[in-house]
C-alpha cells in the first residue's frame, strides 16, 4: 500500500509506517538517480526530497496536526498543539551518501498530549520498517558480553567507560535510527548516546523501542520528553530491560569519576 494511493482514513501508526516507507523508497530512487560521485549534492537532494514527500503527505492526511521536522523551520504553533508529528526525513545523511552503506533511516513519530503514541523507523536499504503497532520484543540475545552500538565517527567517551564497566563490546554503526533498530531487532543489547541529539533523532526509535518492551530514558534515568520549546534532547539509552539498572549504574559511576 502507498500513501499516494490510499484514500481511506488511516490509523496513526499505519500512517507513520506508510510515510516512512514511501520516503524510504523516494530516497532509494534519489540514490539511483544521482549516484555517489557528488556526495554533498546527494545529501542535499535526499534531505529535500524526503522532506517534500513527508510534508505533503502529512498535510493531506493530518492537516490539523502540527509538525516538527529536522528539515523545516520550527513553527511555534506546535507548542500549543495536542498532536505533533516529529520526523527526521533522512537520519544518517553521511551514510546515505556512501555507496554500500545501509545504516541510515527515516523516522516518523506522533506525540499526543504529552506522550509518543505512534512511531515507525524505516531502514530502506535493507527493506525493513519497524512500527510501534506491530513490533514484538526482541529475541533473546546470545550468551556473552553485552553488545553496545555507538557512533562510528564520534562515539562519546561515556560509551567507552560504560563498555569497560559492564564488560561489553562496541559495535560501530551509523545513524541513530539504525543503532536503535539494532537493539529493537535483537542484533545489539544497548544503544547509548551522549553529546548532542534533537527530538527528531530519537522520537520514532523510542516510540518503537517502548512498544517492544525495551527500556528508553535519558542517561540519568529520567523520562525522554518531546515537543519541548527547545528540541535539543542530547542523550539517551535504549536497552534490554534486564540490563537497564546495570547500564544506568555504570553511567552514574562514569559520571562521578
From TrEMBL:
InterPro entries according to UniProt: CysQ/Inositol_MonoPase, Inositol_monophosphatase-like
One matching Pfam family: Inositol_P
Residues bound to Mg(2+) 2: 90
Cofactor: Mg(2+)
Coiled coil: none
Metal-binding recorded as keyword: yes
Keywords for the protein's UniProt record, in alphabetical order: Magnesium, Metal-binding
The keyword Nucleus is assigned to this record: no
Family annotation (Gene3D superfamilies): 3.40.190.80, Fructose-1,6-Bisphosphatase, subunit A, domain 1
Record-listed Mg(2+) 1 binding positions: 70, 88, 91, 201
Protein name per the record: Inositol monophosphatase
Gene source species: Pseudofrankia inefficax (strain DSM 45817 / CECT 9037 / DDB 130130 / EuI1c) (Frankia inefficax)
Lineage, uppermost ranks: Bacteria, Bacillati, Actinomycetota, Actinomycetes, Frankiales
